[in-house]
Amino acid sequence: MIEAALLLCLIGIVLAVFVPTFLRRVRTNKINEAAELRQEMSDRTAAYYATSWDDGQRYCLPPSAGPTPAAPTVDSVEVDFFADDERGHSTWEALDFQPDRPVRYSYTYTPSRDGCALNGNEDLRTVAFRAEGDLDGDLVRSTFERQATLEAGGWKPADALHVHQRTE
Q1: Three-state secondary-structure class, residue 97
Q2: Which of 127, 136, 104 is nearest to 34 (CA)?
Q3: Which one is predicted more confidently, 25 or 108?
């Protein structure tokens, strides 16, 4: 009887130590998806901006896209960002942004202005990259957003990351 009680105590201690750590890691991995794919979206947009041409003009940005998928999911799902039924599919194709893994978050790309010849103008131009997720299915969303600015000297990613309800 004493041995069984000791065994149960040891199992309880092990669970008390390792379960919270495990749950924290699972949550962190879910949040990392948003950071990694937002960064990829930003990198691809910067490359598009630097190399795009239209009607003899340079420094172009495509129109807004997303949210794709239309609603975030608790479990990861495969999404074809280039599919005709996805919002902004032509923009995702132009940016060549197609996650290579299932996603939990909805992704949105929003320039303050699209088109070409966006470099060197006096008024400030920004591009926002947003990921929204509902990690636990309670209809409360985590939001991660970072912006970039188009300045006379070129593309400048913002240092600040705006986060609302990181882990809900």
Answers
A1: coil
A2: 104
A3: 108
